[in-house]
User: Fold Enoyl reductase (ER) domain-containing protein from Paenibacillus beijingensis.
Amino acid sequence: MKAIRYHSHGGPEVLQVEKVPRPKPAKHEVLVRVHAAGVNPGDWQIRSGLAGNRFPLPYIPGWDVSGVVEEVGPGSSLFRVGDEVFGMTADSGACAEYVAVPESQLAHKPAALSHVQAAAVPMSSFTAWHSLNKQGRLQAGETVIVNGAAGGVGHFAVQLAKQAGARVIGVTSGRNADFVRGLGAGEVLDYTAAPLEGTPWQADLAIDTIGGPNGDMLLETLRSGGRLVPVTFGHYNAEKAAARNVTVNEVQLLQISKTTLETIANMFDKGDLRVALDMVVPLEETRRAHERSESRRARGKIVIEISR
Ligand SMILES: NC(=O)c1ccc[n+]([C@@H]2O[C@H](COP(=O)([O-])OP(=O)(O)OC[C@H]3O[C@@H](n4cnc5c(N)ncnc54)[C@H](OP(=O)(O)O)[C@@H]3O)[C@@H](O)[C@H]2O)c1
Assistant:
Protein backbone atom coordinates (compact mmCIF):
# COMPACT_ATOMS: atom_id res chain seq x y z
CA MET A 1 0.00 0.00 0.00
CA LYS A 2 0.99 3.66 -0.33
CA ALA A 3 2.00 5.47 2.85
CA ILE A 4 3.89 8.51 4.04
CA ARG A 5 6.93 7.38 5.97
CA TYR A 6 10.21 8.74 7.34
CA HIS A 7 13.46 7.03 8.31
CA SER A 8 15.08 9.82 10.33
CA HIS A 9 13.85 12.81 12.31
CA GLY A 10 13.99 16.20 10.64
CA GLY A 11 12.04 18.83 8.73
CA PRO A 12 9.04 18.16 6.45
CA GLU A 13 11.49 17.00 3.72
CA VAL A 14 11.99 13.67 5.54
CA LEU A 15 8.36 12.74 4.68
CA GLN A 16 8.39 10.35 1.69
CA VAL A 17 5.69 8.55 -0.26
CA GLU A 18 6.60 4.85 -0.06
CA LYS A 19 5.18 1.40 -0.80
CA VAL A 20 4.90 -0.53 2.47
CA PRO A 21 3.21 -3.81 3.51
CA ARG A 22 -0.49 -3.54 4.31
CA PRO A 23 -0.99 -4.10 8.09
CA LYS A 24 -2.95 -7.05 9.47
CA PRO A 25 -5.52 -6.35 12.17
CA ALA A 26 -4.43 -7.91 15.50
CA LYS A 27 -6.77 -9.14 18.26
CA HIS A 28 -9.59 -6.65 18.91
CA GLU A 29 -8.48 -4.48 15.98
CA VAL A 30 -10.08 -3.70 12.63
CA LEU A 31 -8.31 -2.80 9.39
CA VAL A 32 -9.57 0.56 8.13
CA ARG A 33 -9.34 1.63 4.48
CA VAL A 34 -8.34 5.23 5.14
CA HIS A 35 -10.32 7.97 3.42
CA ALA A 36 -8.77 10.81 5.40
CA ALA A 37 -6.21 11.40 8.17
CA GLY A 38 -6.27 14.43 10.47
CA VAL A 39 -3.09 16.36 11.26
CA ASN A 40 -2.17 17.35 14.82
CA PRO A 41 0.85 19.27 16.16
CA GLY A 42 2.01 15.96 17.67
CA ASP A 43 2.69 14.73 14.12
CA TRP A 44 5.42 17.28 13.45
CA GLN A 45 6.60 17.30 17.07
CA ILE A 46 7.35 13.55 16.72
CA ARG A 47 8.73 13.93 13.15
CA SER A 48 11.17 16.65 14.16
CA GLY A 49 12.45 14.70 17.16
CA LEU A 50 11.00 17.22 19.65
CA ALA A 51 8.97 14.44 21.24
CA GLY A 52 12.04 12.25 21.88
CA ASN A 53 13.04 8.84 20.58
CA ARG A 54 10.27 6.62 21.92
CA PHE A 55 8.58 6.36 18.49
CA PRO A 56 10.42 3.70 16.44
CA LEU A 57 11.72 4.48 12.93
CA PRO A 58 10.75 4.10 10.14
CA TYR A 59 7.56 5.85 11.13
CA ILE A 60 4.19 6.45 9.46
CA PRO A 61 2.55 9.58 10.96
CA GLY A 62 -1.14 10.25 11.60
CA TRP A 63 -3.31 9.49 14.64
CA ASP A 64 -6.75 10.70 13.51
CA VAL A 65 -8.53 8.58 10.92
CA SER A 66 -11.82 8.27 9.08
CA GLY A 67 -12.55 5.44 6.68
CA VAL A 68 -14.29 2.14 6.02
CA VAL A 69 -13.76 -1.18 7.80
CA GLU A 70 -11.97 -3.51 5.34
CA GLU A 71 -11.27 -6.48 7.61
CA VAL A 72 -12.18 -7.48 11.15
CA GLY A 73 -9.43 -8.88 13.41
CA PRO A 74 -9.71 -11.87 15.78
CA GLY A 75 -12.07 -11.28 18.70
CA SER A 76 -13.45 -8.03 17.25
CA SER A 77 -17.23 -7.79 17.37
CA LEU A 78 -18.15 -4.10 17.38
CA PHE A 79 -17.87 -3.34 13.64
CA ARG A 80 -18.59 -5.09 10.37
CA VAL A 81 -16.81 -4.95 7.02
CA GLY A 82 -18.13 -1.87 5.19
CA ASP A 83 -18.90 0.19 8.33
CA GLU A 84 -17.91 3.85 8.11
CA VAL A 85 -15.80 4.63 11.18
CA PHE A 86 -13.68 7.37 12.67
CA GLY A 87 -11.34 7.57 15.65
CA MET A 88 -7.74 7.50 16.78
CA THR A 89 -5.08 4.89 16.10
CA ALA A 90 -3.12 3.41 19.02
CA ASP A 91 0.27 4.11 17.49
CA SER A 92 -0.15 6.56 14.58
CA GLY A 93 0.03 5.14 11.01
CA ALA A 94 -3.06 6.86 9.54
CA CYS A 95 -1.17 8.56 6.66
CA ALA A 96 -1.54 5.42 4.59
CA GLU A 97 -4.11 3.60 2.48
CA TYR A 98 -4.83 1.18 5.35
CA VAL A 99 -4.31 1.24 9.11
CA ALA A 100 -5.12 -1.25 11.88
CA VAL A 101 -6.99 0.37 14.80
CA PRO A 102 -8.24 -1.04 18.14
CA GLU A 103 -12.03 -1.25 17.89
CA SER A 104 -12.18 0.41 21.34
CA GLN A 105 -10.81 3.63 19.76
CA LEU A 106 -13.35 3.87 16.93
CA ALA A 107 -16.98 4.92 16.60
CA HIS A 108 -19.41 5.01 13.68
CA LYS A 109 -18.71 8.12 11.59
CA PRO A 110 -21.38 10.78 12.12
CA ALA A 111 -23.64 10.73 9.05
CA ALA A 112 -23.55 14.53 9.03
CA LEU A 113 -19.81 14.58 8.33
CA SER A 114 -17.76 13.63 5.29
CA HIS A 115 -14.68 11.46 5.89
CA VAL A 116 -12.50 14.56 5.52
CA GLN A 117 -14.48 16.39 8.21
CA ALA A 118 -14.64 13.33 10.49
CA ALA A 119 -10.86 12.81 10.31
CA ALA A 120 -10.43 16.32 11.71
CA VAL A 121 -12.39 15.55 14.84
CA PRO A 122 -11.07 12.82 17.18
CA MET A 123 -7.92 14.02 18.94
CA SER A 124 -8.74 17.74 19.11
CA SER A 125 -12.36 17.39 20.17
CA PHE A 126 -11.54 14.69 22.72
CA THR A 127 -8.76 16.84 24.19
CA ALA A 128 -11.14 19.81 24.42
CA TRP A 129 -13.90 17.67 25.96
CA HIS A 130 -11.56 16.03 28.48
CA SER A 131 -9.88 19.26 29.56
CA LEU A 132 -13.20 21.04 30.07
CA ASN A 133 -15.25 18.28 31.65
CA LYS A 134 -12.86 15.82 33.30
CA GLN A 135 -9.84 17.88 34.26
CA GLY A 136 -11.60 21.26 34.40
CA ARG A 137 -14.85 20.01 36.05
CA LEU A 138 -16.77 22.69 34.16
CA GLN A 139 -20.19 23.69 35.56
CA ALA A 140 -22.98 25.51 33.72
CA GLY A 141 -22.88 29.25 34.40
CA GLU A 142 -19.10 29.38 34.84
CA THR A 143 -16.78 31.61 32.83
CA VAL A 144 -14.16 29.81 30.69
CA ILE A 145 -11.22 31.43 28.98
CA VAL A 146 -9.83 29.47 26.00
CA ASN A 147 -6.28 30.43 25.01
CA GLY A 148 -5.71 29.56 21.35
CA ALA A 149 -9.44 29.65 20.59
CA ALA A 150 -9.02 29.46 16.78
CA GLY A 151 -6.86 26.32 16.76
CA GLY A 152 -7.76 22.65 16.45
CA VAL A 153 -8.35 22.07 20.17
CA GLY A 154 -9.46 25.64 20.90
CA HIS A 155 -12.23 25.83 18.30
CA PHE A 156 -13.83 22.72 19.78
CA ALA A 157 -13.26 23.93 23.36
CA VAL A 158 -15.16 27.18 22.65
CA GLN A 159 -18.14 25.28 21.22
CA LEU A 160 -18.19 22.56 23.90
CA ALA A 161 -17.93 25.10 26.73
CA LYS A 162 -20.78 27.13 25.24
CA GLN A 163 -22.86 23.95 24.84
CA ALA A 164 -22.22 23.18 28.52
CA GLY A 165 -23.78 26.51 29.48
CA ALA A 166 -20.58 28.46 30.15
CA ARG A 167 -19.76 32.05 29.29
CA VAL A 168 -16.77 31.80 26.93
CA ILE A 169 -13.89 34.20 26.35
CA GLY A 170 -11.67 33.31 23.40
CA VAL A 171 -8.05 34.44 23.11
CA THR A 172 -7.00 34.76 19.49
CA SER A 173 -5.39 37.14 17.01
CA GLY A 174 -7.63 39.83 15.54
CA ARG A 175 -7.90 38.12 12.15
CA ASN A 176 -9.71 35.21 13.83
CA ALA A 177 -11.94 37.28 16.14
CA ASP A 178 -15.14 36.92 14.06
CA PHE A 179 -14.46 33.21 13.56
CA VAL A 180 -14.16 32.68 17.34
CA ARG A 181 -17.29 34.75 18.06
CA GLY A 182 -19.12 32.63 15.48
CA LEU A 183 -18.21 29.51 17.47
CA GLY A 184 -19.98 30.91 20.52
CA ALA A 185 -17.45 33.06 22.39
CA GLY A 186 -19.26 35.95 24.07
CA GLU A 187 -16.03 37.92 24.17
CA VAL A 188 -12.75 37.80 22.29
CA LEU A 189 -9.35 39.02 23.41
CA ASP A 190 -6.94 39.87 20.61
CA TYR A 191 -3.62 38.92 22.19
CA THR A 192 -1.74 40.86 19.49
CA ALA A 193 -3.44 44.10 20.54
CA ALA A 194 -3.58 43.85 24.34
CA PRO A 195 -1.81 41.72 26.95
CA LEU A 196 -3.75 39.12 28.92
CA GLU A 197 -2.66 40.64 32.24
CA GLY A 198 -4.94 43.26 33.63
CA THR A 199 -8.05 41.95 31.85
CA PRO A 200 -11.18 42.54 33.91
CA TRP A 201 -12.30 38.89 33.88
CA GLN A 202 -12.36 36.65 36.87
CA ALA A 203 -12.74 33.39 35.01
CA ASP A 204 -13.44 30.09 36.77
CA LEU A 205 -11.53 27.96 34.29
CA ALA A 206 -8.78 28.55 31.72
CA ILE A 207 -7.93 26.03 28.99
CA ASP A 208 -4.43 26.69 27.68
CA THR A 209 -3.71 25.24 24.24
CA ILE A 210 -0.70 27.54 23.67
CA GLY A 211 1.56 27.17 26.71
CA GLY A 212 4.94 28.88 26.67
CA PRO A 213 5.45 32.10 28.61
CA ASN A 214 1.77 33.10 28.21
CA GLY A 215 0.92 30.65 30.98
CA ASP A 216 1.80 33.12 33.71
CA MET A 217 -0.42 35.76 32.15
CA LEU A 218 -3.34 33.33 32.06
CA LEU A 219 -3.06 32.90 35.84
CA GLU A 220 -4.07 36.54 36.14
CA THR A 221 -7.35 36.01 34.28
CA LEU A 222 -8.64 33.59 36.94
CA ARG A 223 -10.56 34.26 40.16
CA SER A 224 -9.34 32.95 43.51
CA GLY A 225 -10.16 29.21 43.47
CA GLY A 226 -10.00 29.10 39.66
CA ARG A 227 -8.59 26.16 37.65
CA LEU A 228 -6.04 26.21 34.85
CA VAL A 229 -5.89 23.19 32.54
CA PRO A 230 -2.94 23.15 30.11
CA VAL A 231 -3.14 20.74 27.16
CA THR A 232 0.48 21.52 26.26
CA PHE A 233 3.59 22.53 28.18
CA GLY A 234 3.82 26.08 29.47
CA HIS A 235 5.35 28.16 32.20
CA TYR A 236 3.09 28.64 35.21
CA ASN A 237 4.79 30.25 38.18
CA ALA A 238 3.95 28.05 41.18
CA GLU A 239 4.29 30.90 43.69
CA LYS A 240 2.07 33.16 41.65
CA ALA A 241 -0.53 30.38 41.29
CA ALA A 242 -0.46 29.74 45.05
CA ALA A 243 -0.70 33.45 45.86
CA ARG A 244 -3.74 33.71 43.58
CA ASN A 245 -5.18 30.42 44.92
CA VAL A 246 -5.32 28.97 41.40
CA THR A 247 -4.96 25.24 40.74
CA VAL A 248 -2.76 24.29 37.76
CA ASN A 249 -3.40 20.78 36.39
CA GLU A 250 -0.73 18.52 34.92
CA VAL A 251 -0.58 18.09 31.13
CA GLN A 252 -2.01 14.66 30.31
CA LEU A 253 -1.30 12.70 27.15
CA LEU A 254 -4.73 11.41 26.33
CA GLN A 255 -5.99 8.09 25.03
CA ILE A 256 -9.36 8.49 23.36
CA SER A 257 -12.46 7.01 25.01
CA LYS A 258 -15.03 5.32 22.80
CA THR A 259 -17.94 6.59 24.91
CA THR A 260 -16.81 10.20 24.55
CA LEU A 261 -16.18 9.74 20.83
CA GLU A 262 -19.77 8.48 20.48
CA THR A 263 -21.07 11.45 22.49
CA ILE A 264 -19.14 13.80 20.19
CA ALA A 265 -20.41 11.97 17.06
CA ASN A 266 -23.94 12.41 18.34
CA MET A 267 -23.40 16.15 18.83
CA PHE A 268 -22.36 16.45 15.16
CA ASP A 269 -25.40 14.52 14.01
CA LYS A 270 -27.66 16.81 16.07
CA GLY A 271 -25.95 19.88 14.60
CA ASP A 272 -24.63 21.01 18.01
CA LEU A 273 -20.98 20.94 16.95
CA ARG A 274 -19.13 21.85 13.78
CA VAL A 275 -15.61 21.43 12.52
CA ALA A 276 -13.64 24.11 10.66
CA LEU A 277 -11.17 23.00 7.99
CA ASP A 278 -8.11 25.14 7.43
CA MET A 279 -6.56 23.03 4.65
CA VAL A 280 -7.16 19.71 2.87
CA VAL A 281 -4.31 18.15 0.85
CA PRO A 282 -3.76 14.81 -0.94
CA LEU A 283 -1.40 12.21 0.62
CA GLU A 284 1.42 13.24 -1.73
CA GLU A 285 1.34 16.76 -0.23
CA THR A 286 1.62 15.75 3.43
CA ARG A 287 4.76 17.91 3.70
CA ARG A 288 2.63 20.99 3.02
CA ALA A 289 0.17 19.94 5.74
CA HIS A 290 3.01 19.56 8.28
CA GLU A 291 4.44 22.95 7.30
CA ARG A 292 1.05 24.58 7.81
CA SER A 293 0.55 22.93 11.22
CA GLU A 294 4.08 23.89 12.27
CA SER A 295 3.35 27.53 11.38
CA ARG A 296 0.87 27.57 14.32
CA ARG A 297 -1.46 29.67 12.17
CA ALA A 298 -4.06 27.03 11.26
CA ARG A 299 -7.66 28.12 11.81
CA GLY A 300 -9.37 24.89 12.77
CA LYS A 301 -8.02 21.65 11.35
CA ILE A 302 -5.71 20.35 8.60
CA VAL A 303 -6.64 17.08 6.87
CA ILE A 304 -4.95 14.72 4.41
CA GLU A 305 -7.39 13.16 1.94
CA ILE A 306 -6.27 9.67 0.92
CA SER A 307 -9.22 8.28 -1.05
CA ARG A 308 -12.71 9.45 -1.84
N1 LIG B 1 -2.49 16.65 25.74
C1 LIG B 1 -2.89 16.09 24.60
O1 LIG B 1 -3.24 14.89 24.54
C2 LIG B 1 -2.96 16.95 23.37
C3 LIG B 1 -3.85 16.65 22.35
C4 LIG B 1 -3.93 17.51 21.24
C5 LIG B 1 -3.10 18.62 21.18
N2 LIG B 1 -2.20 18.85 22.18
C6 LIG B 1 -1.31 20.03 22.12
O2 LIG B 1 -2.12 21.18 22.25
C7 LIG B 1 -1.54 22.26 21.52
C8 LIG B 1 -2.60 22.89 20.64
O3 LIG B 1 -2.98 21.98 19.63
P1 LIG B 1 -3.89 22.49 18.43
O4 LIG B 1 -4.12 21.33 17.54
O5 LIG B 1 -5.04 23.26 18.96
O6 LIG B 1 -2.86 23.51 17.72
P2 LIG B 1 -3.06 24.36 16.40
O7 LIG B 1 -4.35 24.01 15.75
O8 LIG B 1 -1.82 24.23 15.61
O9 LIG B 1 -3.14 25.86 16.94
C9 LIG B 1 -3.10 26.87 15.99
C10 LIG B 1 -3.79 28.10 16.57
O10 LIG B 1 -3.01 28.65 17.61
C11 LIG B 1 -3.31 30.04 17.67
N3 LIG B 1 -2.23 30.76 18.34
C12 LIG B 1 -0.91 30.74 18.02
N4 LIG B 1 -0.22 31.50 18.92
C13 LIG B 1 -1.14 31.98 19.81
C14 LIG B 1 -1.05 32.80 20.98
N5 LIG B 1 0.11 33.29 21.41
N6 LIG B 1 -2.19 33.06 21.67
C15 LIG B 1 -3.38 32.59 21.25
N7 LIG B 1 -3.54 31.82 20.14
C16 LIG B 1 -2.42 31.52 19.43
C17 LIG B 1 -3.44 30.44 16.20
O11 LIG B 1 -4.39 31.47 16.14
P3 LIG B 1 -3.89 32.95 15.70
O12 LIG B 1 -3.35 32.75 14.31
O13 LIG B 1 -5.15 33.74 15.80
O14 LIG B 1 -2.83 33.32 16.67
C18 LIG B 1 -3.98 29.17 15.53
O15 LIG B 1 -5.36 29.26 15.24
C19 LIG B 1 -0.34 21.66 20.76
O16 LIG B 1 0.86 21.97 21.45
C20 LIG B 1 -0.61 20.18 20.79
O17 LIG B 1 0.59 19.42 20.72
C21 LIG B 1 -2.12 18.06 23.27
Residues 40-42, 45, 123-124, 127, 147-148, 150-154, 171-173, 176, 191, 209-210, 214, 231-232, 251-254, 293, 296-299 surround NAP (CB under 6 Å). The chain has a mean pLDDT of 96. Residues 2-121+275-305 form a domain with the Quinone Oxidoreductase; Chain A, domain 1 fold (CATH 3.90.180.10).
